[in-house]
Amino acid sequence: MVAAAAEVKLLGMWASPAVRRVEWALQMKGIEYEYVEEDLANKSAALLRHNPIHKQVPVLLHCGRAVTDSLLILEYIDETWLETPLLPRDPYHRASARFWAKFAEENCREATRKAFFARGEERSEAIEQLREQLQRLDEELEGKKFFGGVEIGFADLAVGWLAFWLGVSEEVAGFTAMDAKKLPRFAAWMDDFLRVPVIRDNLPPREKTVEFFSYYRDQQLAAAAK
Amino acid sequence: MADVKLIGSPLSPYVLRAILALSLKKVEYELLEEKFGEKSELLLKSNPIYKKIPVLIHHDRPICESAVIVEYIDEVWPESGFGAILPADAYHRALHRFWTYYVDDKWFPSLVAIGKAETEEAKAEAVERVRAGLLLLEEAFVKLSEGKAFFGGDRVAFLDVMFGCFVNWIVAAEELVSVELLDEATVPALHGWAVRFREHEAVKEVMPDSGRVLGFLKILQAKWKADAAAAKKKL
């Protein structure tokens, strides 16, 4: 089923990993879409109408329906456009992919967020947690090039933000969680993932992203100090 | 069938989700109950990352996380028992999953906060948040049920299971703090749904009654109080 460009719209923000994740999926499937850049300091009426509870990007608009939350959008895309499946067919492997997606989205994001914003003991604990989580991911890659096997799949798209935004976070906030020597499989995965054309051609410019998150971090820390 | 095992206790609402799904599908399984406060070798081996129940073990392979387990059960036994749990179309599946996230991330923590509240003020605040969440879920129910009995319309579906596991927890919380939460006046549609859900053949067979949940909630409350006191001593 090929959708006309006007049928699929994505409300997004250029620096957001959750938004890129959706774009990767759309592009893997060859789905045409209209991208709308949101100013998160001045959210559009459309964004507020289509995601009233969380008021966040990404939001996928398709045939008048709004789908929110990037992992839910990925499942929706996979169930609506059947070429180039993101999730494997076998229920056990699907369960595994969903499990790792949740792990990357909840645990790793939370630990990274704390490492990025927190201070003192809370921060060092978070960095330690993140290291352990990366180790788990490294172990999961035993015998596999990607989480999805030979090609990238749902879990890779969910974990994928680490390949680019972890380095950005480490640089901006001045911490090191990733150790390529200790976690060679995960290090190799990060390189291989970023080399996949659909991913490589759909990443924000690194310097601009570092600048953005630096500014964002300063803002948030100043607000917290008040 | 010893081929399907479930580690957990029906007193955990997350385990209850898996139990409800297996009941809806009429799949036989062995329940391996964990002792409260202890974690078995099997649990630690099957769920090394989270070390939590529920864990479904099928063909000797573990599946963790309640939402992942319910979707797995639905995919492995698509036509069994009462049929499909996930809605047929992608958009409704997205909505059922969206509201499940909301229940897990925002709503249930506010219900737990009622039990953990140390002051009357904190309790009142938590009650307000639970009620506000229920109003949103009421709206969602009206939209998704389209005038029918369940979130899935005529059939019990994903969100019915993922939220319905809490219906007796709500009753227990109401009794614990003497407030009405799921009352007919403020949330009439949800109130009616809760009654019908409890009465469903696959649900009433397996759902622990609110008395049992209340007993468990009191044990948890004592534990939370002790944990909070110990944490204060550390400071």
Key traits:
heterodimer; A: 226 residues; alpha+beta; 4-stranded mixed β-sheet; B: 235 residues; 10 helices; globular
- Into which percent range does the helicity of residues of chain B fall? 55-70%
Which two chains have the most extensive interface, and how many residues on each? Answer: A-B, 20 and 22 residues
- Indicate the overall shape of chain A: globular
Structural class of chain B: alpha+beta
Radius of gyration of chain B: 18 Å
The major pleated sheet of chain B works out as:
4 strands, mixed
Q: Level of helix content of chain A?
A: 55-70%
Q: List the secondary-structure elements of chain A in sequence, H or E.
A: EHEHEEHHHHHHHH
Task: Give the termini distance of chain A in whole angstroms.
Answer: 53 Å
Radius of gyration of chain A: 18 Å
Give the SSE layout.
The complex is a heterodimer of chains A (226) and B (235).
Chain A: E1 8-12, H1 17-28, E2 34-37, H2 45-50, E3 59-62, E4 65-68, H3 70-80, H4 91-117, H5 120-140, H6 154-159, H7 161-173, H8 184-195, H9 197-200, H10 206-225
Parallel strand pairs in A: 1-2
Antiparallel strand pairs in A: 1-3, 3-4
Chain B: E1 4-7, H1 13-25, E2 30-32, H2 41-46, E3 55-58, E4 61-64, H3 66-76, H4 90-116, H5 120-145, H6 158-164, H7 167-177, H8 188-199, H9 201-204, H10 210-234
Helix pairs in contact in B: 1-3, 4-5, 4-6, 7-10
What report would you give on this structure?
The complex is a heterodimer of chains A (226) and B (235). Chain A is an alpha+beta fold and 226 residues long. Chain A has helices spanning 17-28, 45-50, 70-80, 91-117, 120-140, 154-159, 161-173, 184-195, 197-200, 206-225, and strands at 8-12, 34-37, 59-62, 65-68. In chain A, strands 2-1-3-4 form a 4-stranded mixed sheet, covered by helices on one side. In chain A, strand 3 (59-62) and strand 4 form a beta hairpin. The longest helix of chain A is centred in the middle third of the chain and has 27 residues, at 91-117. Chain B is α+β, with helices and mostly antiparallel strands. Chain B is built from 10 helices and 4 strands, in the order βαβαββαααααααα. In chain B, a hairpin with a 2-residue loop joins strand 3 (55-58) and strand 4 (61-64). Chain B is globular, with a radius of gyration of 18 Å. The mean pLDDT of chain B is 95. Chains A and B meet through strand 4, helix 3 and helix 4 of A and strand 4, helix 3 and helix 4 of B.
